[in-house]
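As a warm-up, study this chain.
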Amino acid sequence: MEEPKPRITSAVIVEHEGKVLLGRRNKTNCEGMWVIPGGGVDWGETIQDAAIREIKEETGMDVEIVKQLGHQEVINTPGNYHAIVFFHLAKSNDPTIKASDDLSEAKFFTLNEIKELNTVKSVKDALVDAGLWK
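Now compare it with the structure written out below.
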């Protein structure tokens, strides 16, 4: 059996009217926790193109990437998860959400609401990097 390797993934912080989009995971790793939507980069796909595709697959939204933010290494060996996540800041002209794929639900939250949610650690870290969380 081949040894597991880290995945390259791309996630999108969508901001709309002072709120940030989060999704509730419905996959085994971190199931039920709120995350920044995203997913794996396909072979031959740019990180930015993966971000646009993943947000469309998971929320039905078309987004415009405003800028690429930093990246984080997320390791959860008990959950069989190791990824290098590249974060992007994006805007959407149509914030209508249709959660699907890896999310059981998705919605926009204020930062005060996010502080009360059960989120993965990378949510706060990415929002700090984006200058949205002080």
